[in-house]
Amino acid sequence: MIRFENVGLRYGVGPEVLKDVSFHIPPRSFQFLTGPSGAGKTSLIRLMFLSLKPTRGFMSAFGKDVTRISPSEMPALRRRIGVVFQDFRLLDHLTTFENVALPLRVAGKEESDYRTDVVELLRWVGLGHRMHAFPPVLSGGEKQRAAIARALITQPEMLLADEPTGNVDPPLARRLLRLFLELNRLGTSVVIATHDIGLMDQVDARRLILFEGRLEISE
Amino acid sequence: MVRFFRRKPADDEDDVFAGADARGRGDEPGQIGFDSSSGPSPIVPSRSVAGRALVFVVAIMTFLSCLTVGAVTIVSAAAGDWQSDIAREITIQIRPVDGQDMLARLDAAVRVAEAQRGVENARALSVADTNALLEPWLGSDLELDELPVPRLVVVTLGDPALLDVDALRATLAAEVPGASLDDHSTWSGQLASVARSVVVGGFGIVGLMLLALALTIVFATRAAISSNLQVIEVLHFVGAENGFVAREFQKHFLLKGLVGGLSGGVAAVLVFVVIEVFAGGFRSSATVVQAQTLLGPLTIGLPGYIAALAIVFAVAILTALTSRVAVHRHLTRLD
């Protein structure tokens, strides 16, 4: 689905934050992306959801060379990828329901068509009673689950989660991990960026380890 | 499509968030407080788009544009009336010539004029009428009978198009010594030129005001984009197309353009109505009479009101389209 070959990335004229990164995310796979803070995890995640383009090397997404993807093709590709940010990126002026429904709304669907789906997903992640609440009054865990629900509502082919358990307590972190495993079992490729060793030890999954911009893979 | 989250967990699986949402699970989607009468919240928050100040600017620009269009309508209509009046009248001037009888030549000029096609009637101004015309310039004490004052024949045209001015001029030259014809074409041409200048100038002013408004909208849109960068970023990563984002901004600006445009347009129409009522109530006032003599009735009429309405909608559409283009350009740069 996503392929990197000797990819390098630098911001402006600064030093390379990713160096010669090569890996492949197969369909229906589950992997952790780990490494110390500042190793380049978030930059790699941004590359994978097509927010950045590599400054060198080859990168393809869903079979397309990212350097040849036109701006008009980008929205359709991004809809195939769900992203959960460490800082949630929920819109404070929209309710939880509206935040989760946002990907469907931008795809031009009517609320009457997606209301049931969104309500059921919110219940599935335990936010059925908070769907009319606005993000500022949600707890960290609730925000995290709302952000996850927003990433999942279109049933993407790939889910990228940046430190999804960074703001929650261990029991909720375990529940979130079970949620990701459930998604993976249903066909979604999952990449979880985390430096929580305890979380990774709970699952026997491939680990992509970043250190000073270089990637090692632990199968 | 069967949604993954509709699938119930198997007996040996954990329900992922069992117990976390006990309050919500028994409800049906239609019974959980959705208000079907109100649509979803705007994706771009209203308060993040420059509000009252922008509406004021739009209202003022619309008000001034409508006033300009109204003034152009009045002047243009008055110039049309002037031209029409002047075109329906020509003047034959007969200079005193030694040895020639003035009265006989006046009769001859009237006869020649009335024989032409398109002429309704011809009338020689009496000595008293001629003196009355000269009195404002020469004073009332002067004895005009002793001066070689030309006499005038006023020719009223039924259909100016039928009259052959050159033929009339040639006949007069042949049959009436000392006669010359003034068809007022110099005046008419100057009035047409003035009317054209007023119309072009007025529309130029409206154009400049709309341009200034468009530039104001561009600045307001840029400010709105700057304060909504996070919203735009989120929209992008959930797969929004630039057109969708631009439409979300456009909705706000269209609303503000409509509110501002209608406010300015209504204010301008009120001014026109007040002027009309004022002119009607003070017909005896010398100023009003002079203004009406010069410009005709002080009302913009139906075309003026239609033009004002057109300005209001043009302003609203201009506001929306300008913001859309500005957002599109900004997003293209971001891409």
Descriptive overview:
The complex is a heterodimer of chains A (219) and B (335). Chain A has helices spanning 41-48, 74-78, 96-106, 111-124, 140-152, 170-185, 197-201, and strands at 2-10, 16-25, 30-34, 56-61, 64-65, 81-84, 158-162, 189-193, 206-211, 214-218. Chain A is an alpha/beta fold and 219 residues long. In chain A, the strands form 2 sheets. In chain A, strands 6-7-8-3-9-10 form a 6-stranded mixed β-sheet, sandwiched between helices. In chain A, helix 3 (96-106) crosses helix 4 and helix 3 runs parallel beside helix 5 (140-152). Chain A is globular. The two termini of chain A are 18 Å apart. The mean pLDDT of chain A is 90. Chain B is an alpha+beta fold. Chain B folds into 2 domains: 46-79 and 194-334, no CATH class; 96-177, no CATH class. Chain B has helices spanning 22-25, 52-87, 102-114, 127-138, 165-175, 185-226, 229-237, 242-281, 286-295, 301-334, and strands at 89-94, 119-124, 151-157, 179-182. Chain B has a 4-stranded antiparallel β-sheet. In chain B, helix 2 packs antiparallel against helix 6 and helix 2 crosses helix 10. The radius of gyration of chain B is 36 Å and the shape is elongated.
